Amino acid sequence: MGPEFLRVGGKDVTLLGSFAGAWSALTGMLPSLACPVDYGFLRPFGLHFRIGARASGLGALAAALSLFLSFPWLRLSGRFLHCWRNPRLNRWQRRLLLS
Length: 99
Known about the structure:
Layout: E1 3-9, H1 13-29, E2 37-40, E3 46-51, H2 57-70, H3 73-85, H4 91-98
Parallel strand pairs: 1-2
Antiparallel strand pairs: 1-3
């Protein structure tokens, strides 16, 4: 369900370099994004890609839902409430709200 190819173009070399670095990091974390990438120098910034034929809207929705549900929402919200209620830890609230 990954892309078949990716073509990125722009006139700013640093923008293309930063995009290439970010794309390289993403493909290291998510191997399904690995695809041939073509970089070029175009006047306006352009991004062209094609998703494989096996992809469907339902599959993309299931992947997004799986990613959303796998995030530790309960544990993080519990830690936030603990820090919010603890008088030693919530001094930042007073500084933020009173300034």
